[in-house]
Amino acid sequence: MTRQSTLPESCIRVFLLITLAAALIITPAVAGEKFLYGSPDLRVAITGTNEFTPGEEATVNLRVENTGLTTIKIVRSDIVARDDRPDTAKMAVVKLKSGDAPLSIKTDPQMIGDITGGSSATASFTIQLDEDAKAGTYTIPVSIEYTYLSSADQHGDDFIRYFYNTKVIEKDLRIVIKPDVRLAVTDIETEAVNVGTEGYVTLTVHNTGKEDARSATLRIERSGASPLIPTDASSYIGDFPSGAVVTSTFKVSTSKNAEPGQYPLNVLVEYKDRNGQVKHSDPRTIGVTTGGKIEFTAVSPPVAVSPGQNTVIDVEYKNIGDAPVYRATARISAVDPFTSNDDTAYLGDMAPGETKTARYILNVDSTATEKIYGLDSEIRYRDALDNTQISKTMKVEVEVVPREAALPVVAIGAILIVAAGLGYWYYRKQQQQ
Q1: What pTM was estimated for this model as a whole?
Q2: Going from the N-terminus, what domains does the chain have, and what CATH number goes with each?
Q3: Per the omega criterion (within 30 degrees of 0), is the bond before 337 cis?
């Protein structure tokens, strides 16, 4: 009886295991889902400021938001899950245009990728406003091109076909071009602007902008590595309303290593706007003509002197520069075998191309070697701004030559006796007549 009851229990256990395994094998896959009545709905706006000034290069930041919603969702075991939702804007490309606004777009269309419903993406564009842009409010168009899932057809439980559409939307964005102070340099005059010296630059400027400047200061600045360097760089001009014209004078210096020519100089105005904020106008670069440097040369031929003598020498100097000099004084440096107790000479004012003569007393040592020597000489003068300047060192050539041989004393006495005799003879002859 015991064996008959045990066998059925074993069969029951095997049957249950087989049934459980079969149940696991034929369990359906996880239920899929699909959405009905959803599509992208894109909106775009400028983030940050939308106010700009003429001539400005600025960045416009755009935010693209997808407000699309899915209103119906179906979940069922026989549905194959979709890879894309119908409210997703895929492969979105943003393009900014200038429209009628006085600006240019310097950035190509921007790819911002996929934007799912309820999310956003950003794009940045660089714009350049026209120099003469008028103040006011302008609209600039922006277009967004994207692809979205329009529908999907399922065939069986293992095949689905997607259908995508491409759409382009156009939006208008508003920007504001603010009035500002804009400079136009209408006249440039220079005085004594020469290489290696200081001079004056007088500028006439016109406020061509639409903003009235208050408590304004006109300034000049060095432009890059220009050899033209401001030394008196600002001029207070007070109120400088739109359309006004002012004239100011500045002092500049030119590097001694420069060549004559035209060099850049920046001009701008610092002012308070209508809200009391301190602003700076965009700098204007002008060209300032610079004359040549002030130079001298000794033009006289070598001066002949003899050993053991004190000699008065004349040296001619010529102003070969491009500017006059004032109260010039020449000096010669006497070195061995020369000495001098009178080594300076006043030349006075010298115009370009003018020549003046300096006179010195030069003592020559009796042991001096007979040859040509080069003595250093320089000229100290005042420039047009009454600054003391010293010229480059010049060489004055002095040639030591042999002394002329003196006549013997006996020969001199004989000559005197003969001369006296001839004189007496001539006198007697005149008396006899």
Answers
A1: 0.64
A2: 32-177 (2.60.40.10), 183-290 (2.60.40.10), 296-400 (2.60.40.10)
A3: yes
